[in-house]
Structures are given as structure tokens and as C-alpha cells.
Design a protein that fits this description.
The complex is a heterodimer of chains A (291) and B (272).
Chain A: E1 4-15, E2 23-29, E3 32-34, E4 38-43, H1 49-56, E5 64-69, E6 72-73, H2 81-87, E7 88-91, H3 104-114, H4 119-132, H5 137-140, H6 149-161, E8 167-171, H7 179-196, E9 199-203, H8 207-213, E10 216-221, E11 224-230, H9 231-236, H10 238-243, H11 250-260, H12 272-290
Parallel strand pairs in A: 4-9, 4-10, 7-8, 8-9
Antiparallel strand pairs in A: 1-2, 1-3, 1-5, 5-6, 10-11
Helix pairs in contact in A: 3-4, 3-6, 4-6
Chain B: H1 16-19, H2 22-38, H3 42-59, H4 64-70, H5 74-87, E1 92-96, E2 99-102, H6 103-129, H7 132-143, H8 153-183, H9 193-224, H10 243-265
Antiparallel strand pairs in B: 1-2
Helix pairs in contact in B: 2-6, 2-7, 2-10, 3-6, 3-10, 5-6, 7-8, 8-9
Classes of the chains: A alpha/beta (291), B mainly alpha (272).
Chain lengths: 291, 272
């Protein structure tokens, strides 16, 4: 079995405890994430996804329960919490709103600078992160405020990548982007995952994206982690997911219906390419039967 | 940290105090503050304090809210009390070297403490039970006569409404930005004053940028809905005085009368 990089034990968090606004955002979460996996985190708005991911790098202190990163308890020594922030890079929703420096170069360097690296190391990391996010050299001297929305977002993501986190968490990194921008960001995340072997957790509302990229899926509903497993296994459970009001990838839905109708197609079909193969195979077989 | 600011925080409920007309509440709170200063003895001030207690009981708010709003001004209360005890001159109760404490000093200190507590608790009750929007609405109506002398009452109250409306939004935004910068390793807790001030830059700049962006968007949205200032503008929620408002006014008036009577005919002990 592969090494476990992130583990939570009975993790719970209550907002505004003791006031009329009290709200249990996450409730008794127990998950184990293997090193090097690509996890898609799915759930409705308000299901506790954002609260959960902020626990994983120690931005929120749990009301009860524990978080382990690489086997170390996050809150064993609260003074050391910053080192986990560099280990677990978190890209928030609409990260372009956090840009503040005069130039793109300085903004990307903010994280590495906080790590206390040498100037050469910082420069190297900035260039590398810029390359990862498709920002050419002439961008580096521009002010982040004169860029377009999609470019700003790339700068913000580069700012986190420059810390070279072992675990990269992204909260809906493609929200509000056009299809081209979405595709670009997703493929650069995929590339980072493959090139560095980092663990990635992607919060997304798009089942298609999760089906295409994720090796594992974590489903949250009403503050609880209800399912965790390999993507293929999870998307087999079409009925349960629909009951929660969540979707499955369109193509999986089509094939689930086909199976209901008695067609002999495989149980889990996630992408259009897989669907094509399955249909061709079926036609071939059907052709032989008829002959 | 930021969300602990409670002064001026609305506490939802459906009590009779919550449902009073905001204009009446504003007038009554002013009357209440005047009344606290009219009272010149312990007994008359206790009537005032009693009125405050009755108002709180009627509002059905948890009692710990009183403590919560008084906590931040505790230093001021203690400071006032200490000053009064040591520096008001009169017949000495107690003397030791250069320190002398007079009966009058102790009495002044006690009265001042009760006054300040009632004052803060009373005005907090107003903000606990009235939404900020209702409050500015009430203020606008009360200040309307000032329009005759060219005071831009509507514009002022619109600005206030917008400012109040955006306080929670901006607090939210600040927390998000702080979280984002902390996620990039920003260190806001350690270091000396200069380092701490520098650590604020990554938070303040994005905050200002987003505040300006929001202001732009809001102005555009208001123009799209044909907002053109206060002239000829009607309201969705018409304020109307009802029986309970007059009841509350009567109650305060009776309290006022009782305090004046107590000042005039009450016992001559514990007086200033």
C-alpha cells in the first residue's frame, strides 16, 4: 500500500459556537489520502468542502479531531504551523483577489520569500512556476493589476506552485473562466501532478473534469464525507449520487441507462474516449451474433 | 478575532422591543441618556437602571450580551471610578499620607459607573434589536427637517446604509485575503511593530482593490435601476407608529417623571 500523505481523525469544526448562528461545518471526517493521488472533491455549496481543505494546511484549528500531514500531527506544536503551509499549498477560490505586489515576479516570489530561501533559489522557483503556468518572461515585469482575469489567476496559482508544495489543493480553480481558460488551468495542474509527483486535491463542480483527471473521488454531503474511493468505483454508484442531488458525468449516466436496457456495456465508463471503445466493441460483437 | 466585534451587531428576534418603530427607539434612547444624567442621586439613578433592566427583559436577549458589550469599555469604567474616588474633594472618609478618600468621591464613582454601564447597555440594546438598515431609515426620517437648511439628508443616510451594508462583506473579504496570504506563508503574529505593519500590506492592498471594484459595481447596478437620489423616492417599508410605540414612550415618560420626583422629594441620602 502506498504511503499516506494526509489523514484526518474524527475531524469536526463548528462555526460561531454558542451563538444563534452556530453551524457544524464538517462533522466527524475520517479520510486517508495516498501520496501521489489526484483527488476530486465534490459536494454541494455549503457541504463543508472549503472548511475541510482549510484544515489540511492548518488555516483553521479543528474544534475536535486531528489532522496528520506526512504522519505529523498538525497541531502538535502550534508554533510550527507555518511549515505545513509550505508543505500543503492551498489555492483559494478566485485566487486573483489576493495579488498585491507591483510586479508579477514579486508576487510569485511572496511565498518562497516567506520560506526564507536564498535570492537565487527564489528567482529559480519564480521562473519555474511561471513556466508551469505558461507565463512568459515579459509578463514577469508587468503589474498584476493590468492583466486579464485568466492571466491574473495563472499568476496567483504560480504564487502557490513556487512554494513547491507536496500537496496542492485547489478550490474551484476554473470558476468563472471561459472554456479555453479552464482547459489551460486544468492541463497545467495535471502537468504539475505528473512532473513532480505531488498529491493534488481538486475541488470542483464539474463531474466531467473530475472524471477526466482524478484518480480518487471524495464526496461530501451535509458536512460529512459520505464516499471516498477510486473514481471508477464511485461513479458506478449512479443512483446514490443522484439521490444526493449530485450529478455523474453525462457519459456515465448514458451508459448506466444502457445497462438498464440490457446492453452488455462495462459498468464504469467515465470519458468519451472510453465510451467510443465500449460502443465499438459492442457493435463488433453484435455484428458477429447477427452473422 | 474580527468577528468578535459585537458593538453594533444585530441580534435577530421577534420581541416587542425588536418590533418598535426605529424612529421611536432612537428618540427614546436619547431620552434615556438624558434621563440618566438628570438623575442626581443613587435612588433616582436606580430607577433609570431598573428601566434598562425592564427593557432588556422585554427584548428576550440573552443576558450575557450585556456583559459582552460592557467588557470592552471596562478600562474606561475603572479609570473613571479611580479618578473620582481619589480626586473628588469632600469630607474625608479615610486618610493616609497624601491619599484621602471622601464620601462624596465614592458616591460620584458609583454613580458614574452605573451611568456609563446603563448608557452603553442602553445604546447596545438599540443596535442589538434594530437592523442597521432600519436604523438608518429611522435616522433619515428624523433628520428630514434639516433638508430645509440644505443638509443632504438622503445622501448621507444612503451613504451610511451602504457603509453598514458593506461592513460584514468587507470583514468577510479581509478574512479570505488573510487566509490566502497565510496559505502563502505570510507571518502576521511575530516580529516587532514595523514588521507587523509591513505584514499588513499584502492584506490592505487587495482589500482596497476589491473595495473600489465593489463600489464601481454597486454604482453601476444602482444606475441600472434608475437610482437618481432622494427626490420623489417612495419606500417599500413605510414606517408607522403604533400602539406599542406610544406605550414605550409613555413608559419612558413615567420613568422620567419618577426620576424628577425622586430628585425633588426623595430621601436626602446618597445625593450629589
Amino acid at each position: 500500500m502506498a504511503e499516506i500523505i494526509i489523514k484526518t481523525e474524527n475531524l469536526s469544526y463548528v462555526y460561531s459556537a454558542g451563538t444563534p448562528y452556530e453551524h457544524r461545518a464538517i462533522d466527524n471526517i475520517n479520510i486517508e489520502i495516498e501520496k501521489g493521488s489526484f483527488v476530486g472533491l465534490i459536494g454541494h455549496t455549503g457541504s463543508g468542502k472549503s472548511t475541510l481543505i482549510q484544515h489540511l494546511n492548518g488555516l483553521i484549528k479543528p474544534t475536535s479531531g486531528k489532522v496528520f500531514v506526512g504522519g505529523e500531527n498538525l497541531w502538535a506544536n502550534p508554533k510550527d504551523i507555518r511549515k505545513f503551509r509550505f508543505k500543503v499549498g492551498l489555492v483559494f477560490q478566485y485566487p486573483e483577489h489576493q495579488l498585491f505586489e507591483e510586479t508579477v515576479r514579486k508576487d510569485i516570489a511572496f511565498g518562497p520569500k516567506n520560506m526564507g530561501l536564498s535570492d537565487e533559489e527564489i528567482e529559480e522557483r519564480v521562473l519555474e512556476a511561471a513556466k508551469h503556468t505558461g507565463l512568459t518572461a515579459d509578463y514577469l515585469e508587468k503589474s498584476p493589476f493590468e492583466l486579464s482575469g485568466g492571466e491574473k489567476r495563472r499568476v496567483a496559482i504560480a504564487g502557490v506552485l513556487a512554494m513547491k508544495p507536496e500537496v496542492l489543493i485547489l478550490d474551484e480553480p476554473t470558476a468563472g473562466l471561459d472554456p479555453k481558460g479552464r482547459e489551460f488551468i486544468l492541463s497545467e495542474i495535471k502537468a504539475y501532478h505528473e512532473n513532480t509527483g505531488a498529491t493534488v486535491i481538486l475541488v470542483s463542480h464539474s463531474m466531467e473534469d473530475v472524471a477526466r483527471f482524478a484518480s480518487h473521488v471524495l464526496i461530501m454531503n451535509h458536512s460529512k464525507a459520505v464516499m471516498y474511493g477510486e473514481t471508477r468505483e464511485i461513479f458506478k454508484r449512479v443512483d446514490e449520487l443522484c439521490e444526493m442531488g449530485l450529478e455523474v458525468p453525462q457519459i456515465s449516466r448514458v451508459f448506466a441507462k444502457l445497462r438498464e436496457k440490457g446492453c452488455e456495456v462495462p459498468e464504469s465508463v467515465l470519458t468519451v474516449a472510453e465510451a467510443k471503445d465500449a460502443v465499438l466493441k459492442l457493435l463488433e460483437k453484435g455484428g458477429k451474433d447477427n452473422a | 478575532m474580527l468577528k468578535d466585534i459585537t458593538f453594533g451587531q444585530y441580534f435577530p428576534g421577534d420581541s416587542i422591543i425588536h418590533r418598535l418603530d426605529p424612529r421611536m427607539k432612537l428618540i427614546l434612547i436619547v431620552a434615556y441618556i438624558v434621563l440618566l444624567f438628570v438623575a442626581d442621586g443613587l435612588f433616582s439613578l436606580l430607577i433609570g437602571a431598573g428601566m434598562g433592566v425592564i427593557f432588556y427583559a422585554l427584548s428576550k436577549l440573552p443576558w450575557k450580551l450585556v456583559i459582552k458589550c460592557i467588557k470592552p469599555i471596562m478600562p474606561i469604567i475603572i479609570f473613571t471610578a479611580v479618578l473620582n474616588i481619589f480626586f473628588v474633594e469632600g469630607e474625608p472618609l479615610f486618610e493616609w499620607k497624601f491619599i484621602s478618600i471622601s464620601e462624596k468621591g465614592v458616591l460620584t464613582a458609583v454613580l458614574m459607573c452605573i451611568r456609563i454601564i446603563c448608557l452603553i447597555a442602553g445604546s447596545s440594546l438599540l443596535t442589538y434589536t434594530t437592523t442597521p438598515i432600519a436604523l438608518t431609515d429611522g435616522l433619515e426620517r428624523l433628520m428630514k427637517p434639516l433638508q430645509k437648511i440644505k443638509v443632504p439628508v438622503h445622501e448621507l443616510s444612503m451613504m451610511m446604509t451602504i457603509a453598514l451594508r458593506f461592513i460584514p462583506t468587507l470583514i468577510d473579504e479581509t478574512q479570505k485575503i488573510m487566509a490566502a496570504q497565510k496559505a502563502r506563508g505570510a507571518d502576521m503574529e511575530s516580529g516587532n511593530v514595523i514588521q507587523k505593519a509591513k505584514a499588513l500590506i499584502p492584506i490592505l492592498i487587495p482589500l482596497f482593490v476589491s473595495a473600489f471594484r465593489r463600489a464601481d459595481e454597486l454604482a453601476l447596478a444602482m444606475e441600472c435601476r434608475c437610482y437618481h437620489g432622494g427626490e420623489g423616492r417612495t419606500r417599500m417599508k413605510q414606517l408607522k407608529l403604533s400602539g406599542k410605540d406610544f406605550g414605550a414612550a409613555l413608559f419612558v415618560a413615567i420613568g422620567f417623571a419618577a426620576i424628577i420626583l425622586m430628585n425633588m422629594f426623595g430621601p436626602e441620602v446618597f445625593r450629589l
